Amino acid sequence: MAGRQKNLAGRLKRLRREETGAEPAGARVIGPGSIEPARVEPSSTNTQSSARKSALGRLRERLQGRGQAYGESSSGPGTQPACPTQLGPPKDLVSWETTHGTCQGREALLSGTDMHGDWHLEEAHLADPKALAIMAQDPRLLAASSGDALFLDTETTGLAGGTGTWVFMVGLGRFRPDGTFELWQGFLPGPEAEKPFLHEVARRIGAAGTLVSFFGKSYDQHRLLDRFRLHGLPSPFENRRHLDLYHPLKRLCGGQGPGPYGDHKLQTLERRLCGHQRVDDLPGSAAPEAWFDFLRGDPHRLEGVFHHNFLDVLSLVTLYGYLGRALTGRRGDGQLLLGSELLRNLALVKSACKARDFSGALQLLGTTDFPEGPLEQVLLLDRLRGECLLRTGATAEGEELLGLVHLRAQGAVEPCEGVKRAALESAQMLARSAAKRQDLVRAAEAHQWAGTWLACWPGLASHAHAQERMGVRLDRSLLQRSATDA
What we know:
single chain; alpha+beta; Nucleotidyltransferase, domain 5; Serine Threonine Protein Phosphatase 5, Tetratricopeptide repeat; two-stranded antiparallel ribbon; elongated
């Protein structure tokens, strides 16, 4: 027991030392966020150098997969990142005074007509809030507009949660009333400046009506909240609309799996949907090392981190504009959106159904007809159309269409998983609808079809449970009818 307490005390001591950012004994601050290493005797130099290399090696191992997770290109063995190194603080830093001290960062002003890939930044103003709300499955976004949006991207020291992960750069972009686009990049020059840095970040987020990020609900927001809590700062995210572009764009481009858009990562989507191809971009996986090099006073690549963050924010703007044109399928000048129209319309219909807007889904289905498409997608469209017809009161028409899905799937030589699923779900819907009308013969027939498809494709547990419940319901109804007839 004593040994366990001793180990725990040692771990707590190390954590406190890391969190307070205490400088090594004998070291002195030589500039904003820069620490000059203590002078050491020759006998201890090799030991400290070995420890530093070991720590950096562990850090590189933890961050090795980050470039892959975010679709970035990491430098291979023996190659150097695109950005050259430099000494001293990043150039063009500006200071802002807060109630907790001074924070630093950069500010850039762009014209709305400036291009990012094939898109003008000002095309974000043409985004339809209805498309955003449908695809994000969040009705609060009906009140969103580009004028009150704040585009958020962070750079951190790792992907792990907790207060051991530092947020050292926050990019925040917004449109000004005059149509220009302002991009503020807050920078943390050292641990001692974190509270004023976070205070300014929170103030700017708190002034926004809608946050726009990419994977921000799952990552950026939580990393910032960890740091806010550490300093006793209130959360600026409470009751604020937040459009996380990752999930709706993933739905729009084919959903789970590789699909035609590869990995659905930011740099994949910005290239394939908005025509932006990055050149000599420092991967985000190299950002932590650049910041730690700066803190030690070593040559660093923070200029590359600033540029990487700058491009990320601009991609948020153009992808926001792309998502906001999903309902029309066209840009403001009439050009067709890049990407698959079929996948886009399927995603819109499924999102409308999930929001129980079946009339709206039927309207979308009226413009979605691809009879020559893959059988899997054609049957999915018919299954969705049949469901919407049932939900809007066109029972006979809906049941007929659901029955046709079963027949077409039955005629497939080697039905794939998608065909089997469409047939199974159509048969189960048809059984429920017929049972509700007390057409027990039709319901029992559809239930039998569903059982056959369930045996071919076990599907999810919910399908098996639905099948079991329908069997119990039919048995009970048949017994009641027999008793009535007797």
